[in-house]
Amino acid sequence: MACAGETDIDPWDPHAPDVSTWADPRRGQYLRIVTEGERLTGFVVIGMPRTAAELSMHAARGTLPTADRTALLAAEHATKEAELGPEDVLCRCAGTTVGMVQDAAPCCRSVEDVASRTRAGTGCGTCHRTIEKILEESAAQPV
Prior knowledge:
By secondary structure, the protein is an alpha+beta fold. The protein folds into 2 domains: about 1-75, 2-Layer Sandwich (Enolase-like, domain 1), CATH 3.30.390; about 90-140, Orthogonal Bundle (Arc Repressor Mutant, subunit A). The protein has 5 helices and 6 strands, in the order E-E-E-E-H-H-E-E-H-H-H. The strands form 2 sheets. Strands 1-4-3-2 form a 4-stranded antiparallel sheet, covered by helices on one side. The protein has a two-stranded antiparallel ribbon with strand order 5-6.
C-alpha cells in the first residue's frame, strides 16, 4: 500500500478536484487518484506496486502521470518487458535510469550492491529482475 497527499475528496462535489477510482477486490487491488489541473494532489494504491512507484514519483515532482488514467492500470498488468534505453527510468521509486545501473554494474555483484550505489531497487522491488539481467549482461562482458 502507498498513499500521499489529499485523498479524502468527495468525487461528486462539482467544486472539488478530480477523482478517479478503480477497484478489483478479488485480486486485492485498489487505486484512487486525485488531480487538480495538471497536478497530482493525492493517491491511494493497494496491491499495485508499479503504479504505486509511478504515482510516488509524480507526487514528489508535483506532476501529472498521464491524462489517461487507464494507462496506469495497463502498466501494472503488462506482461511483456519493454526495450529500455540508457535514458529510460528503470526504477520509478528512486528515479534511476537504465544507464545509471549499467554504469554501476561492473562494480556490483547483486541488486543490493546496485541499490547502495544508485538507490535502484530500494522501493517496491519491481525493477529487481531487470537489475539482475543488467548484472548478468555486465558479468558476461570481457574486462
